[in-house]
Amino acid sequence: MTNPNDPSRILDRRRYPRSEVVATAVVFSEDRLHGTYLVRDLSAGGACLVGDMAAPGGERVTVLLQFPGKTPFSLQARTVRNDDHHRKSARTAISFIDLSAEDEDSIHEAIMNALERENTRRSATILVVDHDASCREALERDLRALGHQAVGVATPLEALAWLDRPDARIATVVVDLSPGPSQGLDVLEFLGAHHPNIQRVVMADELRPFRLDLALRSGRAHKALHKPWDTGRLAETIGGVPAKVAVAGGRD
Q1: Could you check whether the bond before residue 68 is cis, i.e. omega within 30 degrees of 0?
Q2: Which of 201, 119, 117, 109 is nearest to 159 (CA)?
C-alpha cells in the first residue's frame, strides 16, 4: 500500500478528479438508516448522493460504499448540503472524514476506470454509410464537432471492409436508407448477426419515415436519425453509444 505520508502522494490527492461513477451507498447514523443512494460526482473529498429522500444536513454518518463487483467498504462522512426540491429525486452532498489511504486508493481506482471507459467511448469510431458524398461529409463533420471520431463510406461493401479491419474500433454504424432500404437492411442484419455490440442507427429523409419505422420495428436498428438533422438531435441520438466497444474484425 502507498505510504500516506509520502509528500508526492499528498500532492496527488489535490489532483484527484471528480467523476460520475456507477456506485451505490447505504447511509446510516447511530440511531437510524437514512437510505440507499446512487453515487454521483465522486472524489476523494466527497460525493453527491441521489435518492428518494435527502439525508439530514450537518450530521456525521457512516457510508457503506459499493462498486460493482467489489466488496463494500464503510467510510465516515458528514452531510454538508441537501436538496429535496428536485421533482424526481433528492440530493445530498457529503464530505468524507479521515479517509484512509487504502480507501482513497479504491475511490481513485473507480474514478480512473470511469474516465477510461469514457475515453474508450470517445476514441471509438462512428462509421457512416451514405452514398451521398455531401450528406456523408456533413455528418462526419458534425460528429467530429461533437467530439467523436468518424469515417464515411459510400457503399455497403466498403462498410463491410471497414468492419473486417482488425484495428478498427467501431462503436456505432449510421446507415442511410434513403436511396433504397434493401442494401442498408443487409448491412444492419450483418451487424446484428456478427457485431451485436455495435450500435445501429438508421437515417432517412422526412419523405421516407416508413423506412426508419421498418428498421426499428424489425429490430434491425436501435435508433433513427431524420434528415436533415440538427446538432442537438444528433448529439441525443449518437450520445448513447454502448460502453462496451466492439473491435471490428472479431466475431461476437
Answers
A1: no
A2: 201
Measured between alpha carbons, how far apart are the two ends of the chain, in Å?
38
Q: What string of H, E and C letters represents the secondary structure of 204-228?
A: EECCCHHHHHHHHHCCCCCEEEEEC
Which pLDDT tens digit goes with each residue over 4-13?
A: 334 333 333 3
Q: Of 184, 124, 181, which Cα lies nearest the Cα of 154? A: 184
The CA angle 202-206-211, to the nearest 5 degrees, is 45
pLDDT tens profile 86-137: 556 788 999 999 999 999 988 888 888 777 666 655 567 899 999 999 999 9
Q: What is the pTM of this model?
A: 0.50
CB 90 within 8 A of CB 52: yes
Angle value at C-alpha 88, between 83 and 93, nearest 5 degrees:
30
Q: Are strands 60-66 and 24-28 parallel, antiparallel or unpaired?
A: antiparallel
d(CA 189, CA 195): 10
Cell digits of residue 252: 461476437
Q: Report the distance separating Cα 152 and Cα 197, nearest Å.
A: 20
Nearest CA among 246, 250, 252, 251 for reference residue 169: 246
